[in-house]
Give the backbone structure.
Amino acid sequence: MQYNIWFFAIAISLVLIWKLDFFSTLLNLKALSPNVPEAFANVIDQEKYEQSQDYTRDKAVFGIVKSAFGILVLILVWWLGGFGWIDNWVRGFGKGPITTGVLLIGMLVVAQMVLSLPFDLYSTFVLEERYGFNRTTPGTFIMDMVKGLVLAALIGIPLLIALLWIFEKVPAAWLWGWGLVTVFSLALTYIAPTWIMPLFNKFEPIEDGELKQEIHAMAEKCEFPLKEVFVMDGSKRSSKSNAFFTGFGENKRIALFDTLIKNHTVPELVGVLAHEIGHFKERHIVKSLITGIITTGVMFFLLGLMMKNRGLFDAFGVQETSVYMSLILFSIVISPLNTILSIGGNVMSRKHEFEADAYAAKVTGETEPMIDALKKLSKDNLSNLTPDPFYVFLNYTHPPVVERIAALKKLPAQ
């Protein structure tokens, strides 16, 4: 390991990003207010409000410990020459560069999963259990982990082999790699709702009745080609609620958590549906896809520039350059940039949420059902109602619920 410009740049940026996250978390805890926000005065009592603040504190402490552990392990492995050691060890098997790369990256992925396992167990069976959210059984937890590993192997290994081959054999490899990952990601997005998500949850067509009639009436009013509305057994793992949109072309579907249906009225659920349709009508999905494709292209271009960079390998104490180790080191180098890019993505996402809320209010002709739904979701999920603005700027994909409610109330009468 050499203390070159790469070493100092990477070490300093990793520490600064961690400190930024730590500082913003402290600000978020400081922003907790003892008083229930006025907008929630008739929804959340003082006891429930204090419980939501305790939940915010516990999650913050857990997040700080987890992130500190992660960066500590990385620094120890780095400074003790772990990257060079494991590279030499796997090279000793005498396999080709592609097989060696798959073995080494696979080992690192498994090691990361093992190190994360205690935190996953604590989060699920201690933290979420403490606040009444957890519905996951040990059996479900184990099966989820096994299924995840199998899927990662079936999907990830062929993609990894293809990328390693491209960067070993093909000129302008970054361009071909970008194209491959883009096509692969789009295909995965298309098949996931039909083939992958049902491996983890049950999706059943919504029962005939008022809710189904109102949902399809709203979809028809919005000229939204809704093929089916599904109810997902979200209560299998958590009591929290959600809804999401899937599918392309004429195969669009809406999935509602069973917990969402249980806790909300028909007008509220129709408002949630209209919000999801708003994302489609405002072309948020297309914009996000394009942004993601462009971002991936930038990443592959930078990867091409750093491929087999001698200074980078020296900084991590790796003797021989290789495509597979370039991928590993690049994932570490680029993590601070990913943090910065995620901030930009969060800004765009929050803007989209305001626009989808406005669309829902427009097509339903009223704001109260949407406001009531937001209030119930916040109460049931123990959301932080007074987050710090800087923490929101760095981390929130959705605007704080108080801001969403205020924006809805400012909309003109429909």
